[in-house]
Design a protein that fits this description.
- Helices cover 41% and strands 21% of the residues.
- It has 28 helices and 31 strands.
- The strands form 8 sheets. It has an 8-stranded mixed β-sheet with strand order 6-5-9-3-2-12-15-14, with no helix packed on it. It has a 5-stranded mixed β-sheet with strand order 17-18-19-21-20, covered by helices on one side. The protein has a 4-stranded antiparallel β-sheet with strand order 10-11-16-13, with no helix packed on it.
- Helix 2 packs across helix 3 and helix 16 crosses helix 17 (698-710).
- The radius of gyration is 28 Å and the shape is globular.
- The mean pLDDT is 98.
- Bound molecules: tryptophan and zinc ion (ZN).
Length: 877
């Protein structure tokens, strides 16, 4: 790095703003060569600030200032200071009006932050600190203002001009331009500002809130996507109803708009009244969209809608509090999704994500608490820890308080802090207040990083009938943090007798153990036999729990536990145990053989027609390579892959008739519907399909090909395509890929799937193929969806090829990061993730990965985003 290292921002340095902005009036003249932004800010000194003589410092990220006017007086260059970070004005009065004119070049903005262009339209992304790339402002979430926005643009090119709130006025100019004025009555921080200008089509719907407000719902898309709007609008209406029923929250404007854009760094953004979505997170149609994507879209539409209360009406005081809105909103959308389909299946999917990706983050150099104490670049903290672990923390509060008290707590929170910018402490205080609980220790979940480990063991004394469960906890240190104080952990549990019945707990014993000390014994008297414990039901806390279960006990729990999550979990534990043993055996050069108990367990669930097919699908899916890697102290890349492939092949061979029967039983002839039961059948059918192909039985191959060429929906087509590419004969895979591209090349989102399937193929030539695909006419390094589909999928989902022993995978990724470093820092920084995990690999891979990180570090001008991740990854522990 040639320039000075960027500085670290600390939570402990938080001060209230010295100024407030009562009104914000914005005027945009959007042009092909330049865009003029005029702002008029009605400001005053903040009476709560101790420095009533503080200068006015407005954020402005590398802005071109055209004019600055203070209370009607144009300021000359000697009256203010303007640099790369903003504008400073000394001697401003108590109350005043500042007017600024800035000139922007959105067409050159490839960072997709601030005002930029996507497929010929103008759009914005302001969270977290993008507004300062548009105009000078107090770009911090605790400065909330009422916005009025006027947009002026060419009428033919940009017939649609949108911003937050309600359309107040519009008109035509003589020069071919037109204009609209939008008023948002709710005070908001700048990060929730948005505008859109483009040639878009609108699909309309309506919703009547329970108090009778009639809300217009508008979804804006490009003309070719009009057939992909229904699902998002249906999801939105379900989310609106759900939030009324479950949180008593109604929508508060007469208009709710969603816009789909192709160039977007993340999933979607909750701008007030004008949500902007990555097109991949909103557009859906059975022909082009898999079940998984349908569900994801439903969840994200709900997530952004729920932010209207948990995020917008009540927002964050500063960016260290990000989980206040994100953790809570993820908890809300997860509960919503659980209510829309199978709650257990949703829980399994969330736990899988948490345990593979968030636990890995907590064990790596970027580990941070749910409320980080510092950051260099806030964009790097939109993490699995803040989102998913943050949601787990809220979920634990829900468990500890119970549903009714939790609801009283959330009502109090929304009520008390409506229109304010607050902290996670404020949120927890509401929960404490309604429940009469002291959550001081619980709040360590917000301040200590790392994944706590619980070692459990039990003892039964037949003579006295006393059963003792002993729990011990410890949490590994993370960079710069000891995490050594015990966590307050709700452990939901039950005890099973030898027949598999739930043993009634003695009166006064709760099914949630509060485990808050380093070591604790829980004693149960009056037991007539040694029970089998079912621990951490529903995954009641984000921890790693070990208990010395025998394989037979795990089989027993798989079929008897009354908790659906733990039935699945018992199967996963059994499979992990077996896979880990095989990895060791392989490393020792021993022949591999599969414990018959796994085969029997799978046979049992596959044959049981009473079970929910979606659950069966989860049970017969082996733990992923990334989960097995996370569990390893030192990752044996080839060993994990080989052991898992060996088990898949054995299962496929030994259970061929069962997989075939389940495949046939779950193959439906009726046309595609997005509906829980049909989804469940497709999920099991397609898992079975993959096993049938792995078995190498010719009938398997022909079934997969038949499904691929005959499918009437993308779920079935894509499952067959992946199976052919991963496990099929090469000629058949190539034919299918060519056919797929031929049929879907007009659809960008389907082409993304086509890139991903190829990037994930475990064969040796995959990296060459990925390099070649970068030259494909449809590939575009400027589109994050393309980057994620090809480069991201390769680096994150294809362990054996990304971690090739020669380091070519690492070199390839580092080259892409260097290319993207200045072009799109957020995406460049996210691509670094797999390299940050270098300490978990063997010495040679460590050397190769480090060398690439160091090569990136040596680049001339590193973005703050990349600088932070690279330097933390290379820092000594
Ligand atoms: N707040 C958004 C959400 O959780 C996500 C978000 C944060 C985002 N920063 C972003 C989206 C930058 C796009 C670009 O829903
Ligand atoms: Zn969010």
């Amino acid at each position: 790095m040639s320039q000075d290292n960027p500085r670290t921002i600390y939570l402990k340095d938080y001060r209230v703003p010295a100024f407030l902005i009562d009104r914000t009036e914005l005027h945009f003249e959007l042009g092909e060569k330049a865009t003029l932004v005029k702002s008029r800010l009605s400001m005053r000194r903040n009476p709560a600030c101790e420095h009533q003589d503080a200068p006015l410092c407005l954020h402005g990220d590398d802005l071109q200032l055209r004019r600055l006017v203070l209370d009607g007086v144009t300021q000359t260059g000697d009256q203010y200071l303007h640099d790369k970070e903003g504008l400073t004005l000394h001697n401003v009065p108590v109350q005043f009006v500042v007017e600024c004119v800035t000139l922007l070049k959105p067409q050159d903005n490839s960072s997709l932050e601030g005002l930029y262009r996507s497929n010929g339209m103008f759009c914005t992304q302001c969270e977290a600190e993008g507004f300062r790339k548009i105009t000078f402002y107090l770009d911090r979430p605790d400065v909330m203002s009422v916005f009025t926005t006027t947009l002026v643009a060419d009428r033919t090119r940009y017939p649609v001009l949108l911003s937050n709130g309600n359309l107040a006025d519009q008109g035509e100019l003589d020069d071919g331009r037109h204009w609209t004025t939008w008023e948002d009555p709710f005070p908001k921080p700048a990060y929730l500002f948005a505008l859109i200008a483009g040639d878009l089509q609108r699909v309309e719907d309506r919703f009547t809130t329970r108090s009778g407000r009639d809300v217009a719902l508008h979804l804006y898309v490009e003309a070719q996507n009009l057939h992909k709007c229904e699902h998002a609008l249906d999801s939105l209406k379900r989310a609106m109803t759900w939030d009324e029923q479950n949180y008593g929250r109604e929508y508060d404007l007469d208009l709710f708009m969603i816009v789909a854009v192709d160039h977007f760094n993340m999933g979607a953004m909750e701008n007030k009244g004008l949500n902007i979505f990555n097109s991949s997170c909103v557009l859906a149609n059975p022909d082009t969209t898999t079940d998984a994507a349908f569900q994801r879209i439903e969840g994200i539409v709900a997530h952004e809608y729920f932010h209207n209360w948990s995020g917008n009406r009540v927002t964050c005081r500063d960016w260290f509090q990000l989980s206040l809105k994100e953790g809570f909103t993820v908890f809300r959308d997860a509960t919503f999704s659980a209510d829309m389909g199978s709650a257990t299946v949703k829980r399994i999917e969330d736990v899988n994500l948490l345990r593979t990706a968030q636990f890995a983050e907590d064990a790596g150099p970027m580990a941070h608490p749910v409320r980080p104490p510092s950051f260099i670049e806030i964009s790097n903290f939109y993490t699995l820890t803040v989102y998913e672990k943050g949601a787990e923390v809220v979920r634990m509060l829900h468990t500890l308080l119970g549903a009714a008290a939790f609801r009283r707590g959330s009502d109090l929170y929304f009520d008390r802090f409506d229109g304010q910018a607050v902290t996670t402490d404020d949120f927890v205080a509401c929960m404490e207040e309604v429940a009469g609980l002291d959550l001081t220790q619980f709040k360590r979940w917000y301040t200590q990083a790392g994944t706590p480990c619980i070692d459990a063991e039990d003892h039964y004394d037949a003579e006295s009938g006393r059963y003792t469960l002993t729990l011990r906890q410890h949490c590994p240190a993370t960079p710069g943090q000891a995490n050594d104080k015990p966590f307050y952990i709700p452990v939901v549990f039950g005890l099973l007798d030898a027949e598999g019945n739930e043993i009634a707990l003695p009166a006064g014993v709760d099914s949630t153990l509060t485990f808050s000390e380093s070591e604790q014994c829980f004693v149960f008297d009056g037991l007539t036999e040694k029970p089998i414990p079912s621990l951490l039901r529903g995954f009641s806390a984000p921890v790693k729990l070990t208990f010395p279960y025998s394989r037979d006990e795990l089989m027993f729990l798989m079929s008897h536990d009354s908790d659906g999550f733990n039935r699945w979990e018992a199967g996963q534990r059994l499979a992990v145990d077996i896979l880990q043993e095989l990895v060791k055996a392989r490393a020792a050069g021993q022949a591999l053989s599969l414990d018959g108990r796994l085969v029997e367990a799978f046979r049992h669930v596959l044959r049981d027609e009473q079970l929910d097919p979606a659950m069966v699908a989860k049970v017969v899916t082996l733990p992923s390579e990334s989960y097995l890697s996370e569990l390893s102290a030192r990752i044996d890349v080839e060993g994990i892959h080989a052991a898992r492939e060996f088990v898949r092949l054995e299962l496929a061979r030994q259970l061929y008739p069962e997989f075939l029967a389940a495949y046939q039983r779950n193959t439906r002839v009726e046309p595609y519907r997005f509906e829980a039961e049909a989804l469940a059948c497709r999920s099991l059918k397609n898992i079975c399909l993959a096993y049938l192909l792995v078995s190498a039985d010719p009938e398997g191959l022909s079934l997969v090909e038949t499904q691929f060429y005959a499918a009437d929906n993308m779920t079935d087509r894509q499952a067959a395509l992946s199976a052919l590419v991963n496990d099929g004969v090469q000629a058949s895979a190539e034919r299918a890929l060519a056919d797929f591209y031929q049929a879907w090349q007009h659809d960008a989102l389907v082409v993304n799937q086509w890139f991903s399937v190829q990037a994930c193929a475990p064969q040796a030539q995959t990296l060459d193929r990925v390099v070649q695909l970068m030259q494909h006419a449809d590939f575009d390094l400027g589109n994050p969806n393309r980057v994620r589909a090809l480069i991201g999928a390769f680096a994150n989902q294809n362990a054996v090829q990304f971690h090739r022993p020669d380091g070519a995978g690492y070199r390839f990724l580092a080259d892409r990061i260097i290319e993207l470093n200045l072009r799109n820092p957020q995406i460049a920084s996210r691509l670094l993730t797999p390299l940050t995990r270098w300490r978990k690999y063997d010495a040679e891979r460590q050397r190769l990965m480090r060398a690439e990180l160091e090569r990136i570090q040596r680049q001339d001008s590193l973005s703050k985003d990349v600088f932070e991740v690279v330097s933390k990854s290379l820092a000594d522990l």
